[in-house]
Amino acid sequence: MGATLAAAGLRRRTPLATAALVLGANAPDIDFVSYFGGPYQSLAFRRGATHGLLALAILPFLVAGLVLLWDRGVRRRRRPAAEPARAGALLGLAALAVLTHPALDWLNNYGMRWLMPFDGTWFYGDAVFIIDPWIWLGFGGVLFVLHSRGAAALSAWSVFWLLASLLVLTTAAVPFAARVLWLAGLAAALTLRRLTLRSSSRDAALERAARVLLCAGLVYVGLMIGADFAERSRASAELAARGIAPVVRVMVAPVAANPFRGEVVAETDAGYYVGAWSWLAAEPLELAPELIAKRNADPRYAAAAATLEARRFLTWARFPYALIENDANAHVVTFLDARYHATGRLFGPTVRLDSNLRPIAVE
């Protein structure tokens, strides 16, 4: 996103504008260091403090300051006659770029915490899949044409497109039509690059293309947000018609590369109904027959939930439940999130409790 904003013309606002936009758009993900904090620490910490209101106020100053230090300490020492970067413009661009990051993170069903560090409430857009090939293809395509003149750049882009294509073409959930569209879009980007390599108006044309693609991206996201509202409303009505009530929450989450389908979780006091939504089916809501029990009233659940690893997982979990089993020596409690039931369970910690419900092992 930062690079596409630069390509759309913002790179001309000041020297090092592109650097400020790219760094700003990635700055909130400095929380990746939480991966080194032990089991499930990243789930509890990520998309929190570095993505919330306080970070949105602080990070632009850090990004702009870092870029200015580079400008004065490195760039202008190497090129004393170079035009200096303007602090005000860099700060404005960094602020815009930083804001795009949590906005995009909010769009998927993983969610983010806008109000951190003051409030840990999660917010979910449920509109765009966490890896969206159409955004990659649109924004990546124009950046590829703009920034692939040299052999090194072309080699790096080739690696990117190869890995992205492997992901799109080998993921079972991606429909055949989407794979064909991906390959057609990639062929169009390659053709456009070849046709514009020696064009004198190349950069101006690509700037216009980047603006068009940004507008198209906003329209696409807006349509997906509107579709999610409609899906949840219709799914709630269908659940009520089937006698499933009261329903506490309904999620219709996006799926990979297919805007016409979604994954459904309907929460009741007893547990979760999971299924699928399809705009193209005669019966758009399809539910699995079994209710997923929460088991959160079971004392074994409460005992296991008190462990550090479980607390971290439950901080992140949206629709938590547990599988509880007994073996010869212990109670075994495994935490899960129904949000990922349809695409393969995302397992949380497994806690072993003794006969007095004291934790003896956590995996």
How would you characterize the overall build of this protein?
By secondary structure, the chain is of the alpha+beta class. It folds into three domains: 1-125, no CATH class; 224-287; 294-362, no CATH class. The chain has eleven helices and nine strands. Strands 1, 2, 3, 4 and 5 form a five-stranded antiparallel sheet that branches. It is globular. The protein starts with a helix and ends with a strand. The model has no long low-confidence stretch (mean pLDDT 94).
Layout of helices and strands:
Elements: H1 2-7, H2 17-26, H3 41-45, H4 53-78, H5 87-106, H6 133-146, H7 151-170, H8 176-196, H9 202-241, E1 249-255, E2 258-267, E3 271-278, E4 285-287, E5 292-293, H10 299-305, H11 308-316, E6 320-326, E7 331-337, E8 347-353, E9 359-362
Antiparallel strand pairs: 1-2, 2-3, 3-4, 3-5, 6-7, 7-8, 8-9
Helix pairs in contact: 2-4, 2-5, 4-5, 6-8, 6-9, 7-8
